[in-house]
Amino acid sequence: MNHEISNSAIQVDQVSKIYKLYSNPTDRLKEAIHPFGRKYHSDFHAVDDITFSIDRGETVGIVGKNGSGKSTLLKMITGVLTPSSGSIRVNGKISALLELGAGFNPEYTGLENIYLNGTIMGYSKEEMDQRVEAILSFADIGEFIYQPVKMYSSGMFVRLAFAVAINVDPDILIIDEALSVGDMRFQQKCFRKIEEFQESKTIVFVSHDLSVINKYCQRAIWINEGKLMDDSTPEVISKKYQAFMLGTTLKTVGLSVASERNTKTFVQPLSDNLDVLGDNKARITGISLHDTLTGEPTTLIKPNQSVQLRISVQANDLIQFPIIGFSIKDRLGNVVTQSNSYVLEQAVEPLQPGGNYIFGFNYIFPALSRGEYMISPAVASGTQEEHTQHSWVHDALVIQILDHRKHQLNGLLILEDVEFYQFE
């Protein structure tokens, strides 16, 4: 996208950030004293030749997997880091929430840190005196405001940092994943404030929650391995980013799985580091959601779309009377719906030791409101009322519900075919 510099709040022009990586601590000294200037380092491009601009009053989201360069970019915009090359122009006063605790002295009390941040922003003590009450009211941390912030929980840190950031009257507010910490009520309070800010401020924030990007942003920027991959509408970026992340996962499992992608029995292997419950006599090895018409795996779902959920299971023991099931939860952990082979009255043959099995559920996806949802698969044995859990994988698959309706209402479900009329 091209933007006029005169209307830009932030202008990033061919910016790179390069770090020198040394395989051995002594290599740095060798390089410094080598008579012929031999290089002992390799260059790591944390940010690689990125150009974009953000207009005054825009709300822009930045997405990308961990280590893609998002935080480094924000630190350069805020002046914490200096670009290796390129230029950054900022028109306006910036208030930023970067990594937890940034800009705070851990030995100072919360109240002292309020005045410290005010001084950094260029305010006098008298000006901060007029803002303290609003900051304390929004943070709502009680008597902890008089305690050193090193004693704060991460949630309390965010409360105070956000309260300070929004009450120093910034022209530009930058948030780097800070709101992922803390309780849901406070998060909603922050998002209401962000909505207020959108009327007159420029807002830039990083979030892995694509539903947040879609709801609050007019634009989204996708960064991967230090490069700008795309700059477009949140809807377009969400689709491309989700497809990219799914493809990345597939590539990591090797050619044997990749070659099966287009077959009717392909199931996406589980990601690492998932929470699993059960005795492991049988274990879930994969889960993926597929469009019924194309058979292709997808994590972007439209309400009332016809889908097939596939679950792969490996048996480590003989499992008599197996039950295969799943549940769908919203981002607060509320169970939206669930199903299993037992309640569907579909008997499953015993699972044999060492056997690998694939099971499928065909259904019309519920008309859920736009946002992120998690699917948890399970394998058990017994009955619905009395069963043994062998493997329950929490939040194994994250999906995104898309809704192209012009207006969005609150609530979990979308009412379909609603008729409205007035009585005579």
TrEMBL record:
CDD domains: ABC_KpsT_Wzt (cd03220), Wzt_C-like (cd10147). GO terms for cellular component: membrane. Residues 10-250 form the ABC transporter domain. GO terms for molecular function: ABC-type transporter activity; ATP binding; ATP hydrolysis activity. Keywords: ATP-binding, Nucleotide-binding, Translocase, Transport. Coiled coil: none annotated. PROSITE patterns: ABC_TRANSPORTER_1, ABC_TRANSPORTER_2. The keyword Transport applies. Belongs to the ABC transporter superfamily. PANTHER family: TEICHOIC ACIDS EXPORT ATP-BINDING PROTEIN TAGH (PTHR46743). This is Teichoic acid transport system ATP-binding protein.
